[in-house]
Amino acid sequence: MSGRLFRRAGGAVVKIDAAALTDLLRFRQSGFQRAEAGGVLLGRRILGSADVVIDEVTTPLEGDRRTRTTFYRAQERHQQVIDARWSESGGTCQYLGEWHTHPEPLPVPSRIDVLDWCRRLDEDRFDGESLFFLIVGIDVVRAWEGFRQPRIIVPLNPVPEESSRGGTPAS
Description:
Elements: E1 4-7, E2 13-16, H1 18-25, E3 38-45, E4 52-57, E5 65-66, E6 71-72, H2 75-88, E7 94-101, H3 111-123, E8 130-136, E9 141-147, E10 152-158, H4 161-164
Parallel strand pairs: 2-4, 7-8
Antiparallel strand pairs: 1-2, 1-10, 3-4, 3-7, 5-6, 8-9, 9-10
């Protein structure tokens, strides 16, 4: 499986690496009994461009609370992973945002999702001007980019696989 690309405003891309995408897709809520899952996005902002690569995602950890329609992330456990990756990478692996699942084919953010994303933009420490938010649906993964100033959350358009073969960001 190759990764997935999303187009940002201005032509830059967000790439979900194949390994991270595989981890995300493992938690699709395809069965009625599957609980919501989520975590954080970790990766790199490519120097000299506006491209971003999501190399890794945290998956549900001890202390997270999961039901069919809700996911509450245990902040401290995921923060430990963020801090470890930052340290191990010499500061190149960064917190890039959040992800979670929805039990619907084409996921749409709920009001609670949007309020949580706004809270993340207000409270979280991060490099760059924005955070990324993914929702893994049964059939597709959708992406949004949230900006701190001005406060706006915009959907990112998927890049069709045939067009992405020659246009992936630098690794």
